[in-house]
Design goal:
The complex is a heterodimer of chains A (about 325) and B (about 350).
Chain A lengths: L4 H26 L14 H9 L6 E3 L5 H7 L3 H8 L33 H14 L6 E6 L6 H12 L4 E7 L2 E2 L2 E2 H4 L4 H7 L3 E6 L3 H16 L5 E6 L17 H10 L2 H11 L5 H24 L18
Parallel strand pairs in A: 1-2, 2-3, 3-7, 6-7
Antiparallel strand pairs in A: 4-5
Chain B lengths: L1 E4 H15 L3 E5 L25 H5 L4 E3 L4 H13 L3 E8 L7 H8 L2 H4 L9 E6 L14 H5 L5 E3 L4 H13 L4 E6 L6 E4 L12 E4 L4 E5 L3 H14 L4 E5 L2 E3 L3 H11 L2 E4 L8 H12 L9 E3 L10 H7 L3 H13 L6
Parallel strand pairs in B: 2-3, 2-4, 4-5, 5-7, 6-7, 10-11, 10-13, 13-14
Antiparallel strand pairs in B: 1-8, 6-12, 9-11
Helix pairs in contact in B: 1-7, 3-4, 8-12, 9-10
The chains are: A alpha/beta (about 325), B alpha/beta (about 350).
Chain lengths: ~325, ~350
């Protein structure tokens, strides 16, 4: 399906926003202003954006520990996100969650997740709600190639077929589960495994946002029509190490340079837009500078925000009592 | 009011709440039993028959059989609870929490807190527990201390049919994740149960009898044994209070301390393993908050720190019984404080 100029510009803007956000998160971490750990999404932007472009606010996503990109693509407020990562009371979760627990239920973002493989069962549950309450919503479980080996994911693929749930399993294969390669850790073939459950499955080039969008659009249509789940095996690139303090010596400098030079989804998308005369370099530059400003304002505000008051330590453990 | 079994009381609670609120669904292995077969539908109604008849009343969209994959369907209950349903999910034996604890401990229990109070997770996880059924080490544990340890979870351990019904209704209506543990040897216990809909608040102890000499605190099946011990002791003129806190989280610390202070002698009968359990927890609470009122050391009556054995002779030796509870009370009565 052909995307309009406006849709293409919006996709570009969101990808750029994720890239800029992660660049700034990394800088804040390097400067010692991030209390905890972060897992940067840079390099994978086309996946989050292509997937979420095919969704409505009322659809659900369940994310991973590498969740900033998913959050931004699903519409979470970047000011709240950066404040959360800096541990401030103005954060998305009032400083109680941090990078790995960003959630915004108003836009269907059911939470990043610190447990590898923690999300797919929850995504089945959201899909069950949609099916039982007949809301027409679909649910997406983002998982990495690492999480794909977890028993929870295997169980969820099975359950999704047994219950015929409107859920889409997005396997973001960046080739690395922490510091262990997928080549070592993933036996067999991701698509074949899904097909073993009788599930519709497709391999997608995660460097192309339009390819991701098109495959996702079809999966959403299939799920909304009541046909059940789809698995998308999307290959992509992780630019940074596993977490922000990971020196990443397990991948060669040549490999990493090649990633940035030849396999950068954002650069490719920009080139495609310009060479196809879909958007001009000037328009894209303008978008870039607006995003840089937006993120900068958010970072400055987050730095200045207050830390959560210690009195909130014991609130919201339960609904009815502390 | 009519006489009903513990099982029937739970079934009635599920029927009444499913009828009142279409967001309430039930999920579990063999929750109907027989799905996909050519025999009768709803053949089991759950491994212990608690959910029998729900399929006919509410249909397969709200009464969901599952594969034997607890992580996925317990997690699905948690995800459904985040997005508008009020699932009651059953795991057949609480021991099976070993294959799905992440979805309870790291997911459901944490959502509200780690997401900054922006959501609720109104799910109930029902499971059987307890020794005495010759089910050995992987089907007999009393794991409520495990759940009690986890902030964000509420934990209910009913001891009789009327409490079972009222506490289950309250648990379904509660907006937090609730672990609801049913002792499998109580299912056939008969008691007076109101026919109408009623809810018993979580965190309120039930006082079964009041006696001035000592207090026995007990949960689940140990409550009957504590009553039995109290009857034996009464013949010797020892008047014992028996208190069933009914929930381990929240814990009715007020009633516990009130009885500890009034009687000064405390025995805690607990079917769970002795280390880091409710007996130890209540004991520490009283030692900390009611030390001056104590006339004797607090005594715990628990199984030894072993897995649950299989052979009847071993399992009988494992479970605390009325004689051990009575003996502990007598020991507290004989204790003489030596003031140095």
């Amino acid at each position: 399906m052909q995307l309009t100029r406006e849709e293409l510009l919006e996709a570009y803007r969101t990808m750029k926003k994720i890239r800029e956000f992660e660049t700034r998160v990394n800088a804040e971490a390097q400067a010692g202003r991030v209390p905890g750990s972060t897992h940067l999404y840079s390099g994978q932007e086309a996946v989050a954006v292509g997937v979420c472009m095919a969704l409505e606010d009322s659809d659900y996503i369940v994310s991973t520990h590498r969740g900033h990109g998913h959050s931004i693509a699903k519409g979470c407020d970047v000011a709240g996100m950066i404040a959360e990562i800096l541990g401030k009371e103005t954060g998305t979760c009032h400083g109680k969650g941090g990078s790995m627990h960003i959630a915004d239920f108003d836009v269907g973002m059911l939470g990043a997740n610190g447990i590898v493989g923690g999300g797919p069962p929850l995504a089945c549950g959201a899909a069950l709600s949609a099916k039982t309450l007949k809301s027409g919503a679909v649910s997406v479980a983002f998982s990495g190639d690492g999480a794909f080996n977890q028993g929870t994911t295997a169980e969820s693929l099975n359950l999704a077929m047994v219950w015929k749930l409107p859920v889409i399993f997005v396997i973001e294969d960046n080739g690395w589960g922490e510091a262990t390669s997928a080549e070592f850790a993933v036996a067999g073939n991701i698509i074949e495994r899904a097909k073993g459950y009788g599930m519709r499955a497709e391999k997608v080039d995660g460097l192309s946002v339009s390819d991701v969008y098109e495959s996702m659009r079809q999966a959403v249509e299939y799920a909304r029509a009541g046909n059940g789940p789809t698995l998308l095996h999307i290959t992509t690139e992780r630019f940074f190490g596993h977490f922000n303090g990971d020196v990443d010596t397990y991948r060669s400098d040549a490999h990493k340079a090649d990633q940035r030079k030849n396999r950068d989804c954002l650069v490719r998308f920009r080139q495609t837009l310009i060479s196809g005369e879909l958007l001009s370099a000037g328009e894209l530059d303008e978008a870039d500078s607006a995003i840089v400003t937006e993120i900068d304002v958010a970072v400055v505000a987050a730095r200045a925000a207050k830390e959560p008051d210690p009195s909130t330590l014991t609130t919201d453990v339960y609904v009815d009592y502390e | 009011m009519s006489k009903k079994s513990f099982r029937a009381a739970l079934n009635e609670a599920l029927h009444q709440e499913m009828a009142a609120d279409e967001r309430v669904i039930v999920i579990g292995e063999d929750i109907t039993g027989g799905v996909g077969g050519d025999g009768v539908a709803d053949a089991w109604g759950g491994a212990f028959g608690v959910t029998k008849g729900l399929l006919g009343a509410y249909g397969p969209d709200r009464v969901l059989d599952t594969p034997i994959t607890e992580s996925s369907f317990v997690g699905a209950a948690a995800g459904a609870a985040l997005t508008g349903l009020r699932p009651v999910v059953e795991i057949m034996f609480v021991d099976f929490i070993g294959v799905c604890l992440d979805q309870v401990m790291n997911q459901a229990a944490k959502f509200r807190y780690m997401f900054g109070g922006k959501t609720t997770c109104p799910m109930v996880l029902r499971a059987t527990f307890g020794s005495g059924a010759r089910s050995a080490s992987q089907h007999s544990q009393a794991l409520y201390p495990l759940f009690t340890h986890i902030p964000g979870l509420k934990v209910v351990v009913p001891s009789n049919p009327s409490d079972a019904k009222g506490l289950l209704i309250e648990s379904i209506r509660d907006d937090d994740p609730v672990i609801f543990l049913e002792h499998k040897l109580l299912y056939d216990k008969i008691g007076e149960v109101p026919d109408g809909v009623y809810a018993i608040p979580l965190g309120e102890a039930r006082v079964l009898r009041e006696g001035k000499d000592a207090t026995v605190f007990a949960y689940g099946r140990m409550v009957d044994r504590a009553e039995e011990a109290a009857n034996v002791l009464a013949r010797d003129g020892i008047k014992v209070s028996v208190v069933d806190p009914r929930t381990t989280s929240p814990l009715d610390t007020e009633t516990i301390l009130e009885f500890a202070e009034e009687t000064g002698r405390v025995v805690i009968a607990d079917e769970a393993s002795p280390r880091c359990g409710m007996a130890a927890d209540i004991s520490a609470l009283i030692a900390e908050e009611a030390f001056d009122a104590l006339k004797a050391p607090i005594l715990k009556v628990t199984p030894p720190h072993t897995p649950v054995p299989y052979a009847p002779s071993l399992e009988e030796a494992y479970m605390p019984d009325a004689a051990r509870i009575a003996d502990a009370v007598r020991r507290t009565m004989k204790y003489q404080l030596s003031v140095k």
